[in-house]
Amino acid sequence: MSDQAFVPDDFTVPSHLATPRFRLEPLGPQHNAADHAAWTGSIEHIRATPGFRDRKWPPVDGMTLEANLADLERHADDFARRRGFTYTVLDPATGDVIGCVYIYPSRRTDHDAAVSSWVRADRAELDVPVYEAVTAWLSTHWPFGSITYHPR
Question: Which of 46, 49, 51, 122 has the fewest CB atoms within 10 Å around its CB?
Fold first, then answer.
C-alpha cells in the first residue's frame, strides 16, 4: 500500500450511501463488536463470495476481537489518509452490521480502483443489491475512470 492518496485532494469523499434496504458509512473502531460478529458468523459464506474466493480473509479460524479492532483502525486510518475507503453496510432500521465494502487502489494498471464487498450469510439476498448500488455510486459520485469489482 502506497502512502499516496488515491483520490484527488479536491475530491470530497462521500460520507454515506443510503438505500431503502441498507446504508453505508465509514467503517471504524465503533463498529468492532458488531463487525466481528457479522463476519465471524459468515466465514464460509464470505469466502464463497465473488472477490473473496482466492483470498486469505476472512481467516477460517476467525480472529480475536482485539485483532479485529486493529484491522478496523487500519481501515479508518487509510480512510483518513485517503489511501483506501472501507464502508460498513448497515441495516437502516436496526443499525446492525450486515456487511462491508472496500474501495482501494487497483494493483492492475488498467483499473483505478479495486472494489469488493460481502454481506452476512443471513442477509445473502442483499449481495446483488449492494453490488448494483455500489457500482452505480462509484460511477456517479467517485473520480474513477475504471474499477474492478467481481460481478454478481
Answer: 122
Residue 33 phi/psi, 5° resolution? -65, -45
DSSP label at 73?
A: H
Residue with cell 489518509: 81
In terms of pTM, does the model score above 0.90? Answer: yes
Counting beta carbons within 10 angstroms of the beta carbon of residue 85, is it exposed (0 to 12), middle (13 to 18) or buried (19 or more)? buried
The Cα–Cα gap between 117 and 52 comes to 9
pLDDT digits (tens, 9 = 90+) for 30-86: 999 999 999 999 999 999 999 998 888 899 888 999 999 999 999 999 999 999 999
Q: Are the beta carbons of 149 and 135 closer than 8 angstroms?
A: yes
Q: Which three cell numbers stand for residue 53?
A: 474466493
Residue whose C-alpha is closest to residue 119's, from 56, 30, 58: 58
Contact by Cβ (8 Å): 67, 4: no
For residue 118, report the phi and psi dihedrals to the nearest 5 degrees: -145, 155
Q: Cell triple for residue 105?
A: 487502489
- Which 8-state DSSP code applies to residue 92? T
- Amino acid identity of 144? F
DSSP lists the bridge partners of residue 90 as 23, 97
